[in-house]
């Protein structure tokens, strides 16, 4: 059969329509035989699928779209599975955020207590996805996983499914690179970075634009404005104050620690007090998604069902989908594109343990990722990373072993939580909220 069967796992995501558009943009280079949406939430997926079908009908009606909740149907003979599952949905995301904030700690979907709770919900469902692919998919299948929290999920899969053909990625560094390109007045494709760390916990060490080192120029800009061009700052303050606040925190971190440029998620770990002070328990980011992106796509689906015209371009935003599709294309055709991916360290960062789950540059081949060696990193950054990697490792062990003690140790180690007492209080509330999602902890 010519072309590839591509499955989007988590087909009911509000991002699906945009990813499908990016797949269509590269359909000839990629070679798509058929596209499948798979989700365990039929009602939600069917709603989103109306918009996805409109995108395909508008741009590439020749591509067959199939929508299913049956894993055998979805994964049989699949070549590529793009995984974006959100276990517990936005309802649990909001609960994670609010429980954390009630205890005065960071309420965020991938960092801190919320990230650990989300990770503990996701580990075994991700194992199930791997097992479906092993049973039904092509022997040379690839799972491109960008399900959050990517660091914990990746570490769990390296331990529980070490032979799975899975490549773990995150689009946040690429989003920052896009902001760098805007600042420099160039294209994203002109940017190449050196980077080390964990997922949502890393640093840009060097940035090149068309081969020219622009690191110092960017550092100077970021210390003043964060990751946003001076011309766009006022617009960002109006359109999305949360991101404007994030850019401001990037400026603070870059001023305090001047060796490298931070991933924006470091704000939750290095400035947790400022983040908590800014956050609103009655209007968390999860609530904003429900009232914003989710509402827009649900409204669009309802309008399409009524036969009305809808502006589909509102769902074609960001570099998220383009990055994911580029990774799939490089895996499919052995293109050796250089991307930031999440892999076992195995000596890439010399003074970290081999089993650390690091985010570093790699060349994407049809055999997977070929990591770029980073060398040794300074003591401060090493200490930060080792603490966070230990925290994430304990989360994984807590789930596998059903261990309350290891979950408590993980929550205590996390930099967003100020004390063991608070860690226990948050953990106990999370256990109650996650009944039916977490294994029993003893």
Automatic annotation (TrEMBL):
InterPro entries for the chain: Glyco_hydro_4, Glyco_hydro_4_C, Lactate_DH/Glyco_Ohase_4_C, NAD(P)-bd_dom_sf
Protein's name according to its UniProt entry: 6-phospho-alpha-glucosidase
Biological-process GO terms, alphabetical: carbohydrate metabolic process
Catalytic residues of the enzyme: 171, 265
Domain Glycosyl hydrolase family 4 C-terminal: 195-416
Binding site for Mn(2+): 170, 200
SUPFAM superfamilies, per database record: LDH C-terminal domain-like, NAD(P)-binding Rossmann-fold domains
Homology family: Belongs to the glycosyl hydrolase 4 family.
Cofactor(s) listed in the protein's UniProt record: NAD(+)
UniProt keyword annotations, A-Z: Cobalt, Glycosidase, Hydrolase, Iron, Manganese, Metal-binding, NAD, Nickel
Entry's Gene Ontology molecular function annotations: hydrolase activity, hydrolyzing O-glycosyl compounds; metal ion binding; oxidoreductase activity, acting on the CH-OH group of donors, NAD or NADP as acceptor
Cofactor annotation comment: Binds 1 NAD(+) per subunit.
UniProt binding sites for substrate: 93, 148, 285
Residues marked Increases basicity of active site Tyr (site): 109
Keyword Manganese appears in the UniProt entry: yes
Keyword NAD included in the entry's annotation: yes
